[in-house]
Amino acid sequence: MRIVVRHRTVYNYDHAIRYSTQYLRLTPRNNPSQRVIRWNVEGQGRLSPWTDGFGNLCHTLVCDEIVNQISVSANGIVETTELNGVLPDDGILPIKVFLRPTQLTQIDSEIRDFVVPYVETARSNPLDAAHELSQALTERIVYTEGSSHVHSTASDALKNGRGVCQDMAHVFIACARELGMPARYVSGYLYTGDEATPQVASHAWAAVWIEGLGWVSFDLANKTCGTERHIGLAVGLDYASSAPLRGVREGGSESERMDVQVMVTQA
């Protein structure tokens, strides 16, 4: 499948800012499930490409002008292949790195209690345990727009029983790690088939490492594993290490308005 992506983010400020640095993880990598045909990243300022410790293709965008608005865009075409959500190890970091908890995936007593029924299966058949865990979490957490924010944790989502794709990925990752299974966060895009309606955000899911098989993707928000409709952008321990855009600024007001428009269509 060939998928066309058009992604634009605009930051608006009530008071002009003097300086801004944005870290962009908006460029997909080639791997067995996807091949980049064409891709372009543009921003208001100076763009410098680099690669982070997870192997993600990144840019730093520096704007040192006095402005009330900063825009960033990414667009291109990616050809995808159906691999049932399984990817081989990319060899960037040791697998055990993805057992490390983070602030967003911190394990508490509620998460420990939740995974108890899957402990024995995780030891004998980790893939079955991952599928059972995914099913249980989709029954426990209801996808609810606006129910969380970028600082919400896995514990928050499990306790509240509500969240968006980011939260569901964090809970799955935290539970998988507690079961001894390395897990990573994946940011990206999803072709839903609805080509007339722009999305207001990119997408996110999780992947668990299964020895002898590879990284197996679980998109809990859509109750599916990875498909040819998924395009991966960046991987990390959680949202904080793989967010499409993060940055700092000088000046402006305390709050900012961020408008995001994502169009994902079939070529």
Architecture blueprint of SSEs:
Layout: E1 2-27, E2 34-43, E3 46-51, E4 57-63, E5 67-80, E6 86-87, H1 109-115, H2 119-124, H3 126-140, E7 142-143, H4 154-160, E8 162-163, H5 165-178, E9 183-190, E10 203-210, E11 214-219, E12 224-225, E13 230-236, E14 245-251, E15 257-266
Parallel strand pairs: 7-8
Antiparallel strand pairs: 1-4, 1-5, 1-14, 1-15, 2-5, 3-4, 6-11, 9-10, 9-13, 10-11, 11-12
Helix pairs in contact: 1-5, 3-5, 4-5
Explain what this protein looks like in three dimensions:
With 267 residues, the protein is an alpha+beta fold. The chain folds into 2 domains: 2-80 and 245-266, Immunoglobulin-like; 86-241, C8orf32 fold (Roll), CATH 3.10.620.30. The chain is built from 5 helices and 15 strands. The strands form 3 sheets. Strands 1, 2, 3, 4, 5, 14 and 15 form a 7-stranded antiparallel β-sheet that branches. Strand 10 (203-210) and strand 11 form a beta hairpin. Helix 1 (109-115) packs across helix 5 (165-178) and helix 4 (154-160) crosses helix 5 (165-178). It starts with a strand and ends with a strand. The model has no long low-confidence stretch (mean pLDDT 94).
